[in-house]
Specification:
The complex is a heterodimer. Chain A is an alpha+beta fold. Chain A is built from 8 helices and 18 strands. In chain A, the strands form 5 sheets. A 5-stranded antiparallel beta sheet of chain A has the order 16-15-14-17-18. In chain A, strands 2-1-6-7 form a 4-stranded parallel beta sheet, covered by helices on one side. A 4-stranded antiparallel beta sheet of chain A has the order 8-13-9-12. In chain A, strand 1, helix 1 and strand 2 form a beta-alpha-beta unit. The mean pLDDT of chain A is about 90. In chain B, the strands form 2 sheets. An 8-stranded mixed beta sheet of chain B has the order 5-6-4-3-2-1-7-8. A two-stranded antiparallel ribbon of chain B has the order 9-10. In chain B, helix 5 links the parallel strand 2 and strand 3. The chains are: A alpha+beta, B alpha/beta. At the A-B interface, helix 1, strand 16 and helix 7 of A face loops of B.
């Protein structure tokens, strides 16, 4: 039996599931709240998992795909007046639950259950950039600063062409009246002038003048690359996610030079990632810049325009693990 | 967003033979005799965003035009008229087990509202994998515009409702992928089907790739006609047995049944030279030569050699086939 850990809204998981079912692979898809630890048997080294109404023995699971989202728990409401204490208890419950889940993930690892993806280690942008650099990939000049003066100097050194983006994940906030999505944004001189002398530490990067961007899905040593001509549309020039349908960006299959693939492979190995969605850009000189890798990124947007059938490959891979 | 551009044969040759070369190299290949025309061609392609310029053509491999689908069957047509008495729920049961996701119901005669609701509830309670339903029904007393529009919200599987034999022609877009149609056309038997028209062109990668390898109408399709006969399409004469004593699964394992899936446009007379062959629909039920399985669709009025669309139903060359299929009363709409 194959275990897919995902979230309800992930369409990519549905598509991979279709292939799994087509191949008659026995598979369970557990979204955020679907899985619980029912029992740990220390004498015989197995865990009983509660999946919806079923009980599944961990030794029955032959492969795991860590697609997206960790297993979650709906915490009970706490009737304590003291808000400080209440929050501390909530936090503690969350830590307790996280430890259980970490244990489960570790159990699969320690018992050599093959997998695609990984929730245990997650080096984010900052580490990724340094590891990419160590493997002789170009990265844009990058600083994290809280000082206006330092930012101004960086701005000057980058030929007055810089951007800012999140250090961790991009912010996403949805409420009834307000939707905020964190994008990569250009930073102008006016914007810097209006900043106070110190501010919250933020990431700034040299804005590489790009010819096109690359989205590269990596799976077990193989690269599925796509070029996006984001410069045709003013809206997608800085952040391709802002693209609209009016002037759709050309998205075509791309073959990375072998040398770049090799450097990326070393980077992914060092990051302990067997899969992920890599962002790169190619500048006017034809140089390749590594931006970041999302370990559980979307690949449907690469698979369908390039006709790669990555979803089918993943189903085949899961079956063969 | 998707569009088609007509190009002359000479430009086709230029693209095929000189893909990835520099403009200078292309001009030279024609001994610099057609420099102006080549410039004009490149400008046309560039203006229409069909090409881009790069110093690294080796990084842009041609797209793999493979087509694949996880399940043996992807879509089904279920026909029903006042004399039908096969078990429609059993058909749905079997389709669900085969993971057939798209179903078209064609009701040729008025039906009870309760019958339709029972079908929808049946799929709902089953949590069926069937996720898109197209429903063709004749205009009936119980049909109320508002109520029907609400159905799209209450029954998320419904992707299209078409009220035929209606007073009006109207297309209402409920959402991007949900459509409500009124048509004056009387859809009273399966003989209405099979018309080839630019309106039915489907300009997308899925159709384009599927059409390279498989029949653009029948591939991964199964159908139940008004008598419960299992067919490739209700309009076709050959039955693979009645649903009362045969299963859809058995039928799909019959290589005679799936043989027509493997007739791409490249194997259809006339169509094989047509510029629309990978975006067009097909019809194997009504063909110009009823005895020839690779014959051109009868209800196609296009001539790819003259680039003209004409009314197929008045074409004297098609008279015999029209008579053969008893399509005389057919009124083109």
């Amino acid at each position: 039996m194959i275990l897919i850990l995902s979230e309800k809204s992930d369409i990519t998981t549905n598509q991979v599931l279709d292939w799994c079912i087509g191949y008659q692979t026995s598979v369970i898809r557990a979204n955020a709240y679907d899985l619980k630890i029912a029992h740990i048997d220390y004498s015989n080294n197995y865990i009983l998992l509660k999946y919806k109404k079923e009980i599944i023995k961990s030794t029955k699971i032959k492969a795991v795909w860590y697609r997206r989202a960790r297993i979650k728990y709906k915490y009970p409401s706490i009737s304590i007046e003291n808000n400080q204490l209440k929050n501390r208890i909530k936090q503690h419950l969350h830590e307790e639950w996280s430890e259980m889940i970490r244990f489960l993930e570790q159990w699969f690892k320690n018992n050599s259950v093959p997998s695609i993806g990984n929730y245990l280690l997650k080096d984010r942008k900052l580490t990724q950039l340094s590891i990419a650099k160590q493997n002789s990939l170009h990265i844009p000049n990058t600083i994290i600063t809280a000082q206006k003066s330092e930012l101004l100097l960086f701005f000057k050194n980058c030929k007055k062409n810089i951007i800012t983006k999140d250090i961790g994940c991009s912010l996403s906030f949805i409420s009834d009246h307000l939707i905020i999505d964190g994008y990569t944004e250009e930073v102008s001189k006016e914007f810097i002038d209006n900043l106070s002398d110190t501010f919250f530490p933020s990431l700034f990067q040299e804005n590489i003048v790009k010819v096109y961007e690359l989205r590269i899905f990596f799976l077990k040593d193989r690269f599925y690359s796509m070029a996006i001509f984001s410069q045709q549309n003013e809206k997608s020039r800085i952040d391709v996610r802002k693209n609209d349908d009016e002037i759709p960006n050309r998205r075509v299959p791309y073959q990375l030079p072998k040398e770049i693939e090799h450097k990326l492979l070393l980077t992914m190995k060092k990051l302990n990632l067997d899969t992920g969605s890599i962002d790169m850009i190619v500048d006017t000189k034809g140089d390749y810049y590594f931006l970041e890798v999302n370990p559980s990124g979307q690949f449907g947007m690469v698979s369908s325009p390039c006709n790669y059938y990555i979803e089918r490959t993943i189903a085949q891979e899961l079956q063969q693990l | 967003m998707q569009s088609i551009h007509y190009i002359p044969n000479s430009l086709y040759e230029l693209i095929e033979d000189h893909f990835g070369k520099t403009i200078d190299d292309i001009k030279e290949a024609y001994q610099n005799q057609y420099d102006d025309i080549i410039d004009e061609y490149i400008e046309y392609l560039n203006e229409n965003n069909c090409v881009f310029f790069t110093d690294h053509p080796e990084c842009f491999p041609a797209m793999n035009l493979q087509w694949d689908y996880p399940y043996k069957v992807s879509n089904a047509i279920i026909d029903w008229n006042k004399n039908s008495n096969y078990n429609i729920f059993e058909v749905l049961n079997q389709l669900d087990m085969l993971h057939c996701k798209h179903i078209q119901f064609r009701f040729y005669d008025p039906i009870e509202k309760e019958f339709l609701l029972k079908i929808l509830d049946f799929l709902n309670q089953k949590e069926s994998i069937i996720n898109s339903l197209e429903i063709y029904i004749p205009n009936t007393k119980w049909i109320r515009q508002e109520e029907m529009e609400n159905w799209f919200k209450e029954h998320l599987r419904i992707s299209l409702i078409c009220i035929h034999s209606s007073f009006d022609d109207e297309i209402i877009k409920i959402t991007d992928d949900k459509i409500f149609i009124h048509t004056k056309q009387q859809i009273i038997s399966s003989s209405h089907c099979g018309v080839i028209s630019m309106n039915y062109f489907s300009i997308n990668l899925k159709t384009f790739t599927e059409s390279q390898h498989y029949n653009s109408c029948l591939n991964r399709k199964i159908a139940i006609d008004i008598d419960g006969e299992i067919k490739n399409c209700p309009s076709m004469t050959q039955s693979f047995g009645n649903i009362e004593n045969n299963t859809l699964k058995q039928t799909l394992n019959n290589s005679d049944f799936t043989a027509v899936w493997n007739i791409p446009k490249d194997k259809v007379d006339t169509c094989k030279t047509c510029e629309f062959r990978y975006i067009c629909t097909d019809c194997r039920a009504y063909t110009e030569d009823p005895k020839n399985l690779n014959s051109k669709p009868l209800k196609c009025g296009y001539n790819p050699h003259t680039n003209e669309w004409k009314d197929w139903s008045t074409n004297p060359l098609k008279k015999e086939a029209i008579h053969y299929y008893k399509l005389k009363d057919f009124k083109q709409t």
